[in-house]
Each structure stands twice: as structure tokens, then as C-alpha cells.
Specification:
The chain contains 13 helices and no strands. It has about 325 residues and is mainly alpha-helical.
């Protein structure tokens, strides 16, 4: 990846890593579908506003069917499932489980995309990253993953993200649309779908008191961890492919753990920083960064001087 894409990669990981703490805070007042609807409305407004400032247009009508499908798998389902999951598990655990997304994406991409066949290097890096995640979450701890229901909801969300990454690359990416246009359309479609589902399934009666904390958390979740984050994600999918873009989820747990400790008071044990180092090293392997650095470090082979024949008479 280019240096700019590595910057987007890191920023996206930070925004998504913080999102689990914001979800936890928002659940103090909102039900899962209400939370998903709220963050999508805010996120869509932010991205559509940026789109208008840049004077970019929405995608053509012919693509809205694909965009609707991408919004269901990339926004509606995972946003709702992560909110449900965090009702029964910690923000740290939800962030760590999202780290399974790259492995799922690699499998889906291998089946659906001819250009995304897994190489031995990518497999080694992704497996190493998953081992790092196991170290981060510390399943040997008594309260490692929370309830089974919470775990399964988060796993379902991660799988839904994986499907969306591949779907966008295959059906929307070839049209070479600006990432901002795709994001604005995707979040707008997701917001409409989720609002309709919420209205008919759970209604809008809040589950808690609407204080400043959950309301502010929802606004930040929508503007930064949804609007800006998905603009970065769609750009990464277009530039680097779904498998590489999904690798951001290996860094998400590092940020989610850090935010969980600092903002929510969740405990920090030795396995978290150790696992984080393993995750980052594995990402470097999957992207070929370690082999590239070793090649640069090798001294250049000496060049033998050209033989110049002696002139006659010398």
C-alpha cells in the first residue's frame, strides 16, 4: 500500500476501535436498532454534506440496487448486531471479535474474486494476526468473551462486514466512483432501511434516560466512527482490495482495548500489549513489509569493474 493508504488504514482502525466504547455509552439510553438508526442518520448527513461541499454527485440509479445490498451487509446488520452483542459483553471483547473479519474476508474473496486468491504470505500473516487476537483477548481469563449470545452477535457482525467488503469490490468498485459518493449513497440507503425497520419492529421509546453522555456518544459515533470511517474504508477497498482493507480489523482491537481501559475502566493485563505487537507484526507479514525491509537492508552486490583492453604499444 502507499503511504497515504497506510495513513487511512491507521486512522480507520482508531475510529473503529473507539466506536465500541461509544456504542456502550449510547446503549444507556438507546435500544440496538435505535442506536443503529441514529448513527446512520448522523453519518449520512456528515458525508452528504461533505459531498455537497466538494460538488460531487451521487451514483447513478443503475447502481442503487448494489448499494442497497452493500448497505445491508456493511451497515444495517453489523451495526445492529454489535449493539446487541455489547448488551451482553464488553466493548473490548466486541472489538477483539471484529478482528476475525480479515480471515472471513479472505475466504469469501477467494471464492468470489479471481484476483484475490490467497498467497502463502497472506495466509501466514492472517493466521499470525488471529493468534495475536487470541493473546489479546486472553480466553484463559474467567470472563474472557462474555456470554455466548453476545459473542455470536459480534461474530455475525464480523461475517457481515466480510461479505460487504467483497460485494463492494466486485459490484461497485469496477465503476471507479469516488469513495465519498459510494459512502454517501451507502449510508443514506442504510439509514432509510434501518429507520423503517426500527419503526415497525421496536419503535422509538427509549430504554433509558436521554442524558448528555449517551447523546454525545451517539453523535460522535455517527459523525466520526461511521461517516468519516466508511469514507476511508471504501477508499481502501478501491485502492488495496477487500482482503487488505479488512486487515484494518486486526488493529481495531488494540484501539478498542486502550479506549476500554481509559474510558470505561476495563482492566489491562500483560497479554494485551503482547498480543498487540503480534498483531502488528502479522500485518507486516501479510502486506509483505518485512520481506521488503529485509531486501532493502541487504548490501548491494559489488559490481566487477569492466575489463578495458590495453592499447597497442603500452
Amino acid at each position: 500500500m502507499s503511504l497515504a493508504n497506510w495513513g487511512r488504514f491507521g486512522l480507520l482502525a482508531a475510529l473503529w476501535g473507539c466506536s465500541f466504547a461509544f456504542i456502550k455509552m449510547s446503549l444507556e439510553a438507546f435500544a440496538p436498532l435505535q442506536l443503529a438508526s441514529g448513527r446512520l442518520i448522523v453519518g449520512a448527513l456528515v458525508v452528504v454534506g461533505i459531498l455537497a461541499l466538494k460538488r460531487l454527485s451521487m451514483p447513478s440509479r443503475s447502481l442503487w440496487g448494489h448499494i442497497a445490498v452493500a448497505s445491508v451487509f456493511g451497515n444495517v446488520i453489523p451495526f445492529t448486531l454489535f449493539a446487541i452483542g455489547e448488551q451482553h459483553t464488553t466493548a473490548t471483547t466486541a472489538g477483539v471479535i471484529q478482528g476475525a473479519t480479515p480471515l472471513i474476508t479472505m475466504g469469501v474473496a477467494a471464492l468470489a474474486l479471481s484476483e484475490e486468491k490467497p498467497t502463502s504470505r497472506k495466509v501466514a500473516g492472517l493466521v499470525g494476526g488471529f493468534i495475536g487476537l487470541i493473546v489479546v483477548v486472553g480466553p484463559w481469563n474467567s470472563d474472557g468473551f462474555g456470554t455466548i449470545g453476545g459473542q455470536l452477535a459480534c461474530v455475525g457482525a464480523a461475517a457481515s462486514y466480510a461479505v460487504s467488503f467483497v460485494y463492494i469490490r466486485r459490484f461497485i468498485g469496477p465503476h471507479k466512483l469516488p469513495a465519498l459518493s459510494v459512502t454517501a449513497a451507502q449510508l443514506s440507503a442504510a439509514a432509510v432501511i434501518t429507520v423503517v425497520v426500527t419503526t415497525f419492529m421496536t419503535g422509538w421509546t427509549l430504554t433509558g434516560d436521554l442524558t448528555v453522555k449517551p447523546l454525545l456518544a451517539l453523535v460522535v459515533l455517527g459523525a466520526a466512527s461511521t461517516g468519516i470511517a466508511f469514507a476511508l474504508l471504501n477508499r481502501l477497498i478501491a485502492d488495496a482490495g477487500p482482503t487488505t482493507a479488512s486487515g484494518v480489523n486486526y488493529l481495531v482491537p488494540v484501539f478498542s482495548v486502550a479506549v476500554g481501559v481509559l474510558a470505561l475502566g476495563e482492566p489491562l493485563t500483560w497479554n494485551v500489549p503482547v498480543g498487540g505487537v503480534i498483531v502488528i507484526a502479522a500485518l507486516a507479514v501479510a502486506e509483505g513489509r518485512i520481506s521488503a525491509l529485509s531486501q532493502r537492508a541487504k548490501p548491494a552486490a559489488p559490481v566487477a569493474p569492466a575489463h578495458v583492453p590495453e592499447k597497442a604499444g603500452q
